[in-house]
Amino acid sequence: MYDYLIVGSGLFGSVFAHEAKKKGYKCLVVEKRNHIGGNIYTYEKDGINIHKYGAHIFHTSSQEAWDYINQFASFNNFINSPIANYKEEIYNLPFNMNTFSRMWNIKTPKEAQEIISKQRSEIKEINNLEDQAISLVGHDIYEKLIKGYTEKQWGRSCSELPPEIIKRLPVRYTYDNNYFNDRYQGIPIGGYTQIIEKLLDGIEVRLNTDFCKAKEELSKLAKKILYTGALDAYFDYSLGYLQYRSERFELERVEEENYQGVAVVNYTEREIPYTRIIEHKHFEKSSSPVTYISKEYPVDYKETGEPYYPINDKANMELYNKYKELAKTDEKLILGGRLALYSYFDMDKTILASLELSKNSLK
Ligand code: FDA
């Protein structure tokens, strides 16, 4: 008999399994994919670590999360400084003085503030996402850098999207292209999979095993179940389907040393169907003579079967809460991770949440 059956070998499940093993608990991890690591999985091709499920940049202001992850890998000094390409015009992101100077041919923060505040004041009433975005950054930035990208992301026009999707749009009046404000940032040298391998060292893992397809049989094997999969799937969608947005990643090998000169380029015009191109070699400054790029196409969850971004609107949250009530009736069941909690979590928050659960439940 196992103490814990852990469903999912992503970061959440793996951190918990590691902590449980350290305290002497016997764990079994089941994973429906053919590899460990969940969405942070990376693999090597021609000396380049490929981020299979989209760009993963570790960034945190939490000393605890940073110290924890550094036990399992050495991090480089990668700083995320993405570029936006709008109809061949190149802008720096996040919106900062480099962006404004390129957009309006100005030099000082005062000039930028004047232009933005004039454009912001044109919106008198906020009825949709378009109004919201213009009221935060003005129409020039909205038209060139937000509109097309957001419409591709959500598959709907900005004037039909609710304003709540964008709560803040950080605007920096400094010449600073560092996307994140966090104290720590980097990429693990050698990729993320080694972190999961080390976390799961000495723990039994069964790959290609979908818990939901053998629920009864697998549940009998352990005293407790930590479930990190989608909550509606656990209950066989008995109350209905939760909705997500997904992405299709198209990986290409390019016979060039340097394709776009930076890890991330956002394509912000609507006419280009993908939202971003990731060039993987820049994460770790690989000197490979070839390169790999991934084009990211936002798609409906039904197309890929991969639930990436929960759609936390009213209807979905009501459904999720019904499933959560149902989960409370199952005494063996513990929920954790981004899927079971129907939320988006960055990696640092995932580690902290898993450590918190470990502290509370493993004596
Ligand atoms: P994750 O989804 O990783 O793991 C769950 C695992 O459970 C999966 O392996 C799945 O196959 C398995 N599973 C599900 N159902 C199962 C079943 N029925 N039976 C068996 N196994 C089952 N964060 C960050 O800090 N910086 C970044 O740059 C990014 N970038 C980013 C890009 C994209 C496109 C996404 C979607 C997400 C990010 N993230 C991120 C977030 C990051 O991916 C996230 O924090 C972790 O992957 C969460 O780990 P979990 O273990 O919760 O879920």
Notes on the protein architecture:
The chain has 363 residues and is α/β, with parallel strands linked by helices. Among the domains are: 2-39 and 57-76 and 184-242 and 311-361, NAD(P)-binding Rossmann-like Domain (Rossmann fold, 3-Layer(aba) Sandwich); 94-165, no CATH class. Helices cover 33% and strands 21% of the residues. The strands form four sheets. The chain has a seven-stranded mixed β-sheet with strand order 7-6-12-13-14-11-15. A five-stranded parallel β-sheet has the order 9-2-1-10-16, covered by helices on one side. α1 (11-22) packs parallel to α13, α2 crosses α13 and α5 runs antiparallel to α6 (139-154). It is globular. The mean pLDDT is 96. Bound molecules: dihydroflavine-adenine dinucleotide. Dihydroflavine-adenine dinucleotide is lined by residues 7-13, 30-33, 38-40, 53-58, 210-212, 228-229, 233, 247, 308, 337-339, 345-347, 350.
Outline:
The chain is of the alpha/beta class and 363 residues long. It is built from 13 helices and 16 strands.
Radius of gyration: 22 Å
- Distance N terminus to C terminus? 19 Å
- CATH third-tier fold name of the domain at 2-39 and 57-76 and 184-242 and 311-361: Rossmann fold
The stretches of 5 or more residues where confidence is low (pLDDT under 50) are none
| β-strand amount | 15-25%
Mean pLDDT: 96
Largest sheet: 7 strands, mixed
> Which strand order does the major sheet show?
7-6-12-13-14-11-15
Order of helices and strands: EHEEEEHEEHHHHEHEHEHEEEEHEHEHH
Name some characteristics of this structure.
363 residues, alpha/beta, Rossmann fold, seven-stranded mixed sheet, five-stranded parallel sheet, binds dihydroflavine-adenine dinucleotide
